[in-house]
Amino acid sequence: MPAVDLTNRAVWLSSFSKPLSVVDLPVPNADVGTAVVKILATGVAPYTHLIHLGKLPALNLTPPLVPNPSGIGRIHDVGTDAVRLKKGDLVFIDGLNRVRDDANVALMPGHMTGGHPDAQKLMRGVWRDGSWQQFQKVPLEVCFLLDEKRLCGNADIPLSCGLGHEAEWKDRIEWRSGRQMPPSIRASYLEKHPTDRQMDV
């Protein structure tokens, strides 16, 4: 099978005087101590527009860069020293990176350096870009493995729900939304919720 050329589409802040643009960047490589995460979701802070206009100088942000520090995604690749994280794992990326050899220095890629010269150095280099891109390179220590079955349910068990909800709860949602339930589930549901019997059409 031929190799698939991946693209890394990103939101790009070229300067505080220009609007954001969409660019294609290289997909980063995972080296020792890092992971490359395929971003699935990321947030937008209510003050984001002020950052992109350069109106929050305390953040000491210097474009060009990909904005936004944190997100949720799947591991695309990991460095050779990773022992727990593996390709395909669902992870949360903590936006706060503490410098490995000086815990007093911290930065948030694509968001802020706090003014420390060492943090600014890293922001201009390897930790410049944040999560508004398809593939973000991050330190291993800011990737937190998420319990996917707990959050999203079990794909192997029909009608299972995440976050500890019982399937019956999901059945009720599907019933009220007009979806047809299998007869065995419908009978069990109506035993538990007799007031919904009028919906049995």
Provide the descriptors you would attach to this structure in a database record:
201 residues, alpha+beta, five-stranded antiparallel beta sheet, two-stranded antiparallel sheet, 9 strands, globular, ADH-like_N, GroES-like_sf, Alcohol dehydrogenase-like N-terminal domain-containing protein
Quaternary structure annotation = single chain
| Helical percentage | 10-25%
The value of Rg in angstroms is: 22 Å
User: How large is the share of residues in beta strands?
Assistant: 15-25%
Give the strand line-up of the largest sheet: 8-3-4-5-9
Protein name: Alcohol dehydrogenase-like N-terminal domain-containing protein
Pfam families: ADH_N (PF08240)
Domain Alcohol dehydrogenase-like N-terminal: 33-145
Organism: Colletotrichum noveboracense
What can you see in these coordinates?
The structure is a single chain. With 201 residues, the protein is of the alpha+beta class. Helices cover 18% and strands 23% of the residues. It contains five helices and nine strands. The protein has helices at 48-52, 117-123, 148-152, 167-176, 183-192; strands at residues 8-12, 21-25, 34-41, 71-78, 90-93, 97-99, 102-107, 135-139, 143-145. The longest helix has 10 residues, at 167-176.
Short description:
The chain has 201 residues and is an alpha+beta fold. 18% of the residues lie in helices and 23% in strands.
